[in-house]
Amino acid sequence: MTSASPATLESRRRRLEADLATELKRPLPDFTHVKQLKQMKLRLKDALAAQQRPAPNVRR
C-alpha cells in the first residue's frame, strides 16, 4: 500500500471516512463492518505517515 501516491491514499482515507459515517447512521449498524472500516482507515493512516517520514540517514 505504501507504493501508492499520498494523494491516492488520502482519497481512499476520505472514502473510508464517508463509508464509516454512512454505516454508523444506519438504524442498526453492522459493527463487524465498522471495525473493518476502522482497521482499513488505520492502515491508510500508517501508510501516509510512513511516506511522510524522512528517509533514514544511512552511512556505510
What does this entry look like structurally?
It contains 2 helices and no strands. It is mainly alpha-helical and 60 residues long. The two termini are 29 Å apart.
Question: What attributes does this structure have?
Answer:
single chain, 70% helix, 2 helices, mainly alpha, elongated
The count of helical stretches stands at: 2
Mean pLDDT over the residues: 88
Low-confidence stretches: none
Estimate the global geometry from the Cα principal axes: elongated
SSE pattern, N- to C-terminal: HH
Total beta strands: 0
The count of domains is: 1
Q: Which secondary-structure class do the elements indicate?
A: mainly alpha
- Helical content (DSSP H or I, runs of 4+): over 70%
User: Span between N and C termini?
Assistant: 29 Å
Largest sheet: none
**Radius of gyration, Cα only, in angstroms?**
15 Å
Beta content comes to under 5%
